[in-house]
## 1
Amino acid sequence: KNEVEQSPQNLTAQEGEFITINCSYSVGISALHWLQQHPGGGIVSLFMLSSGKKKHGRLIATINIQEKHSSLHITASHPRDSAVYICAVRSMYFGNEKLTFGTGTRLTIIP
Amino acid sequence: DVKVTQSSRYLVKRTGEKVFLECVQDMDHENMFWYRQDPGLGLRLIYFSYDVKMKEKGDIPEGYSVSREKKERFSLILESASTNQTSMYLCASSPTGGEFTGELFFGEGSRLTVL
């Protein structure tokens, strides 16, 4: 079992729909990152959070430390939101900080 | 804005060639990382560096080496490229301390094909 599991792997939705992408992890963490990767490869950091909820524009990220679960929500989705969304967790491994990545959720928003 | 620049977006090399991938960041970040990304596997850490001339092995260092002679530049070297090193390579930097502690800033990626 991977340390970081994302669901769904692929998601297609109509423009305007409310989108939820989930991330579950199995280790104790100090922080969780949500990243966005557009076609062509570049990755942008959307959020880094260790508790509660963060909001930036139409994007909302929540985390439940007890349940080891985080969600990324997109309100009023738009075709430009089409990208791969990657969850990554920051944890300690033999005294060093380690970042473990999920395999990503491919989101396609249809006009 | 922080900028992380990777020298080549696309490279095609032959088996056995020496390959250099360069990464430069302009925000004086202490930490720099090299990852490779393969379908279904997520990003995997090859090497990282937390200071000039310092380097640490990541999860998959075999077949790679790195160089950090200056704070802003972190190079990934494939001494003798092999076909199983065909991949997308991503460089990232991260500050220690300050407002963006722990935040990751990625380059655009370098897609390497080894024939």
## 2
Amino acid sequence: QKEVEQNSGPLSVPEGAIASLNCTYSDRGSQSFFWYRQYSGKSPELIMSIYSNGDKEDGRFTAQLNKASQYVSLLIRDSQPSDSATYLCAVYTGGGADGLTFGKGTHLIIQP
Amino acid sequence: DGGITQSPKYLFRKEGQNVTLSCEQNLNHDAMYWYRQDPGQGLRLIYYSQIVNDFQKGDIAEGYSVSREKKESFPLTVTSAQKNPTAFYLCASSIGLANTEAFFGQGTRLTVV
């Protein structure tokens, strides 16, 4: 059974600080990793994808992947109140596997 | 504008009734997916399709059916066999099944009345 684990939160971070969101996955053969942002009542929006070990930066967002530890994280620098949302980690295993496996999400609150 | 359109946004179903949720994309994507989201839960895969006229069951396919007669369209039918259909239903598409980013429609919120 493929599993993707996230701390449900809420994670409360002061405005302007760095928010750190973590995700672990069970299938060592996982190939692709994604972070989605979901506002309450809305659909998920893709914000980052990462495929190889290391860091990937896009604006205020940095995704970090460590396949040996089966761990992927998302850092949000200079956090803004508009970053308050639920962040979903998604993993693609490949090898004929079906679609993405999602974690339950971390609820992030940025305090003004 | 390219994107994924789901309709309706809200849907009410009576006990024992079948309902069909629409999903259309103009992104020229080959792969399409249906997910279900319950409050406080992650997304669970219902069905997915890699190409026209082919689809596969996901983790929770019981009580649901799909068709893929056109590349652009992947409707989901929630049948009376689905005992707990109240949920947020999300359609997504990607260029292909492997290693590609999936993009979502705005979702359909289904409620049993």
